[in-house]
Predict the structure.
Amino acid sequence: MQQLKSIELIYLNKNVLKSLTQNRITTIKDFLHEDPEKIALLTKLTFAQVLEIRNDIYKKFSAVLITGEKLLEKIIRNKKLCIGIKSLDEILDGGIPVGITEFCGLAESGKTQLCFQIAINCVKNSENNVLYIDTKGDFSALRIQKILDTNGFSHKDMALVLTKIKVIRIWSMEELIELLKKIKNKQCCIEKLALIIIDSLPCLMFQHLGDSNKLGLTYLNTMVNYSRYLYNEFNLSIICVNIQTRWIDQDVSDLEDDGEISSILKEPGFVEKRNRCLGKYWKHIPTTVVLLEKSQMSTVDNTSDLNVTVIKCCNIECDRYCTLKLGDFGVT
Amino acid sequence: MDPNKIKLESGVQLLARLIKKSKIENFYPVLFKSGPKFGEVIEMFSNISLSTLLIDMICEALIPIKLGGAQLSILIFKTDGDFNYDALVECLRKKLEQFKSLFHETMSNLHILEIYDATQFYTTMYNLENIFTEHSDISLIIFDTLTAFYWSEQGFKITKMDMYLKNVLKVIQEVMKDYKITVIYTRPEYFNSSKDTNLETCVNSNTEGLDYRIQLIFEEGVYKVIVKTSQLSIKRHFIILDNKINWI
């Protein structure tokens, strides 16, 4: 919550701020919540002046009303980012929607590989730029070059693709929030930005595992709020990579633990449970959720099958799947 | 009476008090039967997306009375709720397919506030009085969701989720006490301090009172809606075909 002392408001000089602080009015919310007459008494300002301060706050911080007509102008219908992998585009009803999409899977399930391919497909043959936020330090330009090389790209085209994928390494939630804030405030401008890939979010969030004051969730909430601003105002798609965890549970009757847990009966009395990480708050955030699972690599052609299941598409629960191929050529 | 305590009433407040309508007529009868009263609070929660149901409700509320709707003027606080504008416009277009000329007029009764942080949330809430002055016909306000800034507002001491909801509702009711406006808010199912979803405890308390609690459950391809008030509890089922709600 914004502190009164951190903003410039009409009539709020040092003395006024001091008397407000002495009466525990420190934030904008405290100020607006208090009776203006009482504030006038406490601060020795006139009632009219207090109302002027309130209006100043409204002018600076209140949201702008969007009317129905303006909304119609604002809507860009069916704006989806086609990701250039036909079967996946199909089960996503045309591509990744504007908003937050989650790619989730166990370790080594091909999440990063799919992100690389989507980044390539998004920038090739288009003017789009992609921002790749690498939190694990394993973004591999070599791997991207190899995919492009296998697909017969010339050196010039490879360079063009790679220049359009902007990579930034981030090591903490604070840094991620700072970056998103800079993009919001246009201090960091990336022209024709169509997609942000955060690979991966748990890597930053796990640093706060076990914090008694749930600082991680405070950061996650702030990050989600900045992301909402970015995708709404700049028509962006944001892919967040999440991981799945699995464990074997003995109690078969305890199947309804959590709505998001899928259970596969392995043998009588034992159940394998899987869970999307990042907690309950996060589960409601992505508009689209894609689960990934990789099969064992075939020894014949060194490729693996990537089983993709869409469990939520544009906020509607669903269960659609397709199989992709993962190999030296990337993901197709 | 203490002369200092005399409260001035603005023209709009007076008007709101005088044009007494007791309830919203014909508003989503499948769930509300004869309709919620003005000033009542409706909570919607689910562990899945509420967007399809909410959009259908908004469209029915916007549609003119002569076409079977409630013809309300609506204000939406869009926080991290997941309904999208495309789906809303698409749904309204379908419902007004035979009466295309009414589409723009109907849309003009919709007002949206996009909220991106806690400061903006509270400032806009306190600014509602000014918004209502300009748009005095607004009679339904929807917060989707009311819980979007919970975590960013927590410091070293964490407020319990129930307490947080009550506090936010208290602010809303305080701001809107002079305007007879029905409030709908959504929250994710987990946003609850206790497992006990006993409605009576909320309804009996005057200030934080909830009048309706609506839960959406998805089971074996069918959506189940449970509506609870202090007096009754009804269950309805629907399926979604072509992004459209079909009540069974």
